[in-house]
Design goal:
The complex is a heterodimer of chains A (311) and B (433). Chain A folds into 2 domains: 35 residues; 202 residues, MetI-like (MetI-like fold), CATH 1.10.3720. Chain A contains 13 helices and 2 strands. In chain A, helix 3 runs antiparallel to helix 10. The model of chain A has no long low-confidence stretch (mean pLDDT 89). In chain B, strands 2-1-3-11-6 form a 5-stranded mixed sheet. In chain B, strands 8-9-7-10 form a 4-stranded mixed sheet. The radius of gyration of chain B is 26 Å and the shape is globular. Chain B has 18 helices and 11 strands. In chain B, 43% of the residues are buried. In chain B, helix 2 runs antiparallel to helix 13, helix 8 packs across helix 9 and helix 17 runs antiparallel to helix 18. Classes of the chains: A mainly alpha (311), B alpha/beta (433). Chains A and B meet through helix 1 of A and helix 1, helix 3, helix 10 and helix 17 of B.
Chain lengths: 311, 433
């Protein structure tokens, strides 16, 4: 029986290393399917698309390198590029606050302690479940100038409704209204946030005689701010990526009033055989969304309140 | 023991995910199905060719019929139909970019030049295509630089459908072959009634292909004959006058429903329900109208302008993929598909490109089909025939100009000049290296 060759502390240290390595190995093994998928189906194509943005490629013949010409053309020689940015920006500017407010409102409705509230929650969430194309077709009928629901009701009280989708001045606004249909997802998240607000805060406020408005602005909103923050980022990103509505309902018209950026990108890629240019547009969109998200994140330090955070 | 189950579950999940990824690839069957030579040395090797189309559902009944008939004649060539009803164009482009397009594929008229010039369609000159089988103007759409590349599936020129009942009620003489634009306008004005919300004619709005014959009818042109220039052609006085005439039909004489009106009445067939007395379109709704016993209608060619009678084609056809591994068999199928046998099947629902089928009683003696085949003499080549980049340059700027002029009015000459200059610039850029 020989004395142990290795002193005790080193032995346990080595054992810990081995265990750490084993755990790491398991981690990578379990994450590998997702990792492979991410590299092959997300990062890989992104890098290829970055390369393509410096080429001219019509999908039918091989790509040819043209340097930064796509980007130069985008910023200096393409009025529709700016149009599509304006359309998408305007849409996001309307949609994000409206959607957040609507989602919060619906969430507060869903949070009522009323009999059968579960059924109401389902009903309020239902529009979110209908597929994008079906929603678009449905709303095309609602917005119909002569026979749609809105104009029929307006005619009832003697107002001649506008061409919601056929009038270039109204079309983008109509699409914003239509997009309110799908705030269900954000509502569910707000609901979870609302449920997380400790009741004693409200009780304390009641004791101090606070009005509903004060309770809302001084308790609910600050407690909800992380959720608002999350929903805001997701909403901004989603708004800039709008495509289906333009593709199905308006084809970017009338007179380019609903020429969303993503739709214009698709048109360049597949209808005008300009894959390289479309790739450049896609990367610029990526930059915009990153910048906006960073802005929201940076500003969050000013208005988002995390329980338990040490300032 | 618990650990064993956790480990095997994790492994099972990973395996399932890998399997799912591996099996999610597109249906890219290798078309080469060579069988080893059997005891009969004369038996040709079995080959499978892929046939891409955007038709689907009932629309591919014709395709499947033809495939069956084809297999009776050529049992060793198996045809696999790939029907892509949604985004066929996008899918075809991505297939082309990876070299995996179908052996025989369908494309529309405007794309012919583009696909041929980029080398994706097989030149059919060496395969003995008999061009005398076809109507010249229809055959011509698939010819690029003097060589045949694509053969026709179906086509349609434009015609004016007129509602006999409405004409007789208003006391307007029925249109006759060779009628003029003045006669057309007079008739339409008499048949338009604002208070009844009835229009004289349902025109083709901002559809650029259908606008071309109106431009030509009054001596205008949209692109120079050598296909190189727009400036001076698209905004020439004749073109400006012709476009002004067309726009005035909408804005001054108000004989046609504006796009906003048509949008509102979208699911109603304006012609069938008597909301318009005339309709300018192709042969597509013909069988629907024929089967309506309450609709008494006739068909006549487009009204003549100062430069005579004109017309234009809408066309879809088939070509063979230049990178197909089974070109001979694919061409064999293409010849069958577009020749008399295939045309006989397709002509059950559309106009035939093959003269022998068009000469049959069903067409030569039918009062409607006679007109459609008759106007083929007036057909002129559409813009993309002059330059394969016409769609990406000319139409790209002409479209918004026409839309704006139609919806908001404005100076036609100024807008066309602007469009022509932008189109020239775009064309130069597209053609540069």
């Amino acid at each position: 029986m020989a004395a142990p060759a290795v002193p005790a502390p080193v032995r346990t240290a080595r054992k810990r290393d081995m265990q750490r390595t084993r755990e790491a190995a398991w981690f990578y093994a379990c994450i590998s399917p997702w990792m492979i998928g991410f590299l092959v189906f997300t990062i890989g194509p992104m890098l290829v698309s970055l390369y393509l943005s410096f080429t001219r490629w019509d999908l039918l013949s091989a790509p040819s390198w043209i340097g930064v010409r796509n980007y130069v053309k985008m910023f200096t020689d393409d009025p529709l590029f700016w149009t599509s940015l304006k359309v998408t920006g305007k849409y996001a500017l309307w949609r994000v606050p409206a959607a957040l407010a609507a989602a919060l409102g619906i969430a507060m409705l869903m949070n009522q302690d009323v009999k059968g509230i579960r059924v109401w929650r389902t009903i309020l969430y239902l529009p979110n479940v209908v597929s994008g194309v079906a929603v678009a077709v449905l709303w095309m009928w609602v917005f119909n100038k002569d026979f749609g629901v809105i104009n029929s009701l307006l005619a009832f009280i003697g107002i001649q409704g506008p061409g919601w989708l056929s009038d270039p001045g109204w079309s983008l606004f109509s699409m914003t209204i239509m997009s309110m249909w799908t705030v269900g997802g954000m509502s569910i998240i707000f609901l979870a946030g609302l449920k997380n607000i400790p009741q004693y805060l409200y009780e304390a406020a009641d004791i101090d005689g606070a009005s509903s408005w004060v309770k809302f602005t001084r308790i609910t909103l600050p407690q909800l701010s992380p959720t608002i923050f999350y929903n805001m980022i997701m909403c901004v990103i989603g708004a800039f990526q709008t495509f289906t509505e333009a593709y199905v309902m308006t084809n970017g018209g009338p007179l380019n009033s609903t020429l969303f950026y993503n739709f214009y990108l698709y048109r360049n890629a597949f209808r005008e055989f300009k894959m390289g240019y479309a790739s450049a547009m896609a990367w610029f969109l990526f930059v915009i969304i990153v910048v906006l998200s960073l802005l929201v994140i940076r500003s969050s330090a000013l208005w988002v309140y995390y329980e338990g955070e040490k300032k | 023991m618990k650990r064993f189950w956790r480990v095997s579950f994790a492994l099972f999940l990973m395996g399932a995910m890998v399997l799912a990824v591996a099996c999610s690839g597109t249906n890219n069957k290798k078309p080469d199905d060579t069988k080893p030579a059997t005891t009969e040395p004369a038996k040709p090797k079995e080959v499978t060719i892929r046939f891409g189309t955007w038709d689907s559902g009932d629309g591919v009944k014709g395709h499947n019929d033809i495939i069956k008939k084809f297999n009776e004649k050529f049992p060793h060539i198996k045809v696999q139909l790939e029907s892509v009803p949604d985004d066929y164009g996008t899918k075809l482009l991505t297939q082309m970019s990876t070299g995996s397009a179908p052996d025989v594929f369908q494309i529309g008229d405007g794309d012919v030049g583009m696909y041929v010039k980029k080398g994706t369609v097989e030149d059919l000159s060496a395969y003995g295509i008999d061009k005398n089988l076809y109507y010249p103007s229809v055959y011509d759409v698939g010819v690029v630089d003097g060589k045949p590349y694509l053969l026709n599936k179906d086509f349609s020129p434009l015609a004016v459908y007129y509602n006999k009942t409405m004409f007789e009620k208003a006391g307007v003489p029925l249109p006759k072959d060779g009628w003029t634009q003045d006669e057309f306008l007079a008739a339409a004005k008499k048949l338009t009634s604002e208070k009844d919300k009835v229009w004289g004619v349902d025109l083709t709005g901002t559809w650029l292909r259908a606008l071309e014959p109106w431009i030509w009818a009054n001596g205008g042109k949209l692109i120079s004959d050598d296909g190189k220039k727009y400036e001076g052609v698209m905004n020439s006085d004749a073109t400006v006058k012709a476009l002004q005439y067309y726009l005035d039909l909408y804005r001054v004489h108000k004989i046609a429903p504006m796009p906003a009106d048509k949008e509102a009445l979208k699911n109603i067939d304006l012609f069938e329900t008597g909301k318009v007395a005339m309709l300018v379109t192709g042969s597509w709704p013909l069988s629907k109208y024929k089967s309506n016993p309450n609709l008494k209608f006739g068909v006549v060619g487009l009204p003549k302008g100062s430069a005579g009678a004109t017309n234009v084609l809408c066309w879809a056809g088939f070509g063979v993929y230049s990178k197909s591994p089974n070109k001979k068999e694919a061409v064999e199928f293409l010849k069958f598909l577009a020749g008399p046998e295939g045309s006989a099947v397709f002509s059950k629902t559309a106009l035939p490109a093959v003269k022998s089928v068009g000469g049959s009683d069903a067409f030569a003696k039918d009062e409607y089909n006679k007109v459609f085949l008759g106007v083929l003499d007036h057909v002129k080549p559409f813009g993309a025939k002059y330059n394969y980049l016409y769609g990406q340059s000319g139409e790209k700027f002409l479209g918004p100009a026409v839309e704006e002029l139609l919806l908001k009015g404005g100076d036609v000459k100024a807008k066309l000049t602007d469009a022509a200059q932008k189109a020239d610039k775009e064309l130069k850029e597209l053609q540069s290296k």
